[in-house]
Amino acid sequence: xxxxxxxxxxxxxxxxxxxxxxxxxxxxxxxxxxxxxxxxxxxxxxxxxxxxxxxxxxxxxxxxxxxxxxxxxxxxxxxxxxxxxxxxxxxxxxxxxxxxxxxxxxxxxxxxxxxxxxxxxxxxxxxxxxxxxxxxxxxxxxxxxxxxxxxxxxxxxxxxxxxxxxxxxxxxxxxxxxxxxxxxxxxxxxxxxxxxxxxxxxxxxxxxxxxxxxxxxxxxxxxxxxxxxxxxxxxxxxxxxxxxxxxxxxxxxxxxxxxxxxxxxxxxxxxxxxxxxxxxxxxxxxxxxxxxxxxxxxxxxxxxxxxxxxxxxxxxxxxxxxxxxxxxxxxxxxxxxxxxxxxxxxxxxxxxxxxxxxxxxxxxxxxxxxxxxxxxxxxxxxxxxxxxxxxx
Length: 392
Fold this sequence. Notes:
By secondary structure, the chain is of the alpha/beta class. It has two domains: 7-75 and 98-172 and 283-366 and 375-389, FAD/NAD(P)-binding domain, CATH 3.50.50.60; 174-281, D-Amino Acid Oxidase, Chain A, domain 2, CATH 3.30.9.30. It is built from 13 helices and 17 strands. It has a seven-stranded mixed beta sheet with strand order 5-4-13-14-15-12-16, with helices on one face. It has a five-stranded parallel beta sheet with strand order 7-2-1-11-17. A hairpin with a 5-residue loop joins β14 (211-217) and β15 (223-230).
């Protein structure tokens, strides 16, 4: 009788949790190790659009699609695109019943996935400090608290700065020359009605002259804004600005956005609380690695890409579901890894190239016009076609 492999997922993000959920649905034991102390230990970020042809397929495999649809915000598929002078280029309002890419807050998605797992599956407060290869494809995992465990398969679902990635690849994320400065608006409909009207029920994009503003409607009357600059990674330090000095950061941002429409500048001037600096990093779009016994990657650990296109979390979840299914199908762990990576690696490369193209287009010189704006309805139809064709 073939012994049950000892499987460890490093990282309790959407991809790692999806993998664990699908494994458990098929009776395969798995442990998830996560550095956070609990599911709500930190801000999980903004909202995600889960595409019918990727993220929703993963949720279906996890048996959670209907619950996701109850939690999601179909109206969040609305999108407004403006030029920096305030001209509205696109004003797409999501139709009733549209389910190609409904939105959900990251924290809600994480909670949905985490709560679907058997109690004790997630080992919270376990920060991985080292992975040591052992014999026959095994690995010894060492955590910051000094505890250790040996596994037959370690799955790196631990994001951009993965500690598992060096087992299979020497690649490291590189700065894109673009930084997002995040701003928050609480109880936006009451305290910031002009921002609420500008953003609407979904997302707002405005770009020009290598800069941009991206605003997302989240649940509970919250809006997140990403003020995007093409700049040095250490732009604040180079300017002699303390990142915690909100007034000084705001002054620098307003200088960078001189001449932009006054309605758009409210996204810089009216926020609640401090700004958060978030430089964007990516792995090479062509990132690949030799098949490595007992180890593989998924999500950002495998194909970290820019957020343009919304592919990241969707692919991470599909990666997780497909890896789990391969482990169900194949008695040999390495056969499962080989089959999984055969599909995942080129798919990640394809989408990373598209995300790179989106980043360059958004932050190009001069002003945007209607030709630069994606066709939302065409994108939604593509997601549906991908869903219909999946597995055929």
